[in-house]
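TICKET: design request
STATUS: open
ATTACHED STRUCTURE:
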C-alpha cells in the first residue's frame, strides 16, 4: 500500500467538506426494511461489463442501509431478500447466482455448474434514476395500500 500525500488527503477532505456544505445529494441504491424482522438482501444488476449479483446485507427491522454507493448502475435492479426471524423471502422469476455467505458474482449463467446457488429475484424499475430507495414491508402491510 502506498502512503497518501497529505496534500492530496487535505484536498480530498476539503472537496468533501465543500460538497457537504453545498448540499450535494449523493446518488446511491438504498434498501429500507419496513418489516418487524431482520432481513438479508442481495441485489443483481447489469453494468458496462455484464451481470453482477452481490449480497448479503443484513438490515435490522425498521431501518435503512446503503447497498451500492454512487449512481444506480442500471435502470433495472433485481432483489432477493430473506426474512431471518419469521422465515420466507421476497423473490421473483428472474434467476441469478447467489451463495450462503457474503458474495459478489459476475455472470448469471450456469450458477450451479460454477458452484453457486440459483435464486429468483424480483425486478425494480428505477426509471433511470441515479438515486433510488427500495422499501420492503410485511406482506399484510402491502395489502393495506402502504
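STATUS: resolved
RESOLUTION: sequence designed for all positions
ATTACHED SEQUENCE:
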Amino acid at each position: 500500500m502506498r502512503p497518501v500525500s497529505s496534500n492530496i488527503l487535505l484536498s480530498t477532505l476539503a472537496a468533501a467538506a465543500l460538497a457537504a456544505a453545498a448540499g450535494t445529494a449523493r446518488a446511491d441504491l438504498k434498501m429500507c426494511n419496513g418489516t418487524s424482522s431482520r432481513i438479508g438482501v442481495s441485489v443483481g444488476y447489469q453494468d458496462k461489463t455484464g451481470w453482477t449479483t452481490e449480497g448479503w446485507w443484513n438490515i435490522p427491522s425498521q431501518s435503512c442501509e446503503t447497498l451500492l454507493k454512487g449512481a444506480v448502475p442500471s435502470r433495472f435492479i433485481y432483489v432477493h431478500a430473506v426474512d431471518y426471524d419469521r422465515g420466507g423471502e421476497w423473490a421473483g422469476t428472474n434467476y441469478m447466482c447467489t451463495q450462503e455467505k457474503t458474495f459478489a458474482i459476475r455472470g448469471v449463467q450456469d450458477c450451479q455448474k460454477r458452484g453457486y446457488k440459483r435464486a429468483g429475484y424480483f425486478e425494480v424499475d428505477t426509471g433511470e434514476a441515479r438515486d433510488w430507495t427500495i422499501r420492503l414491508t410485511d406482506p399484510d402491510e402491502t395489502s393495506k395500500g402502504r
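CLOSING REMARK: Residues 6-21 form the longest helix (16 residues). The helical segments are 6-21, 139-142.
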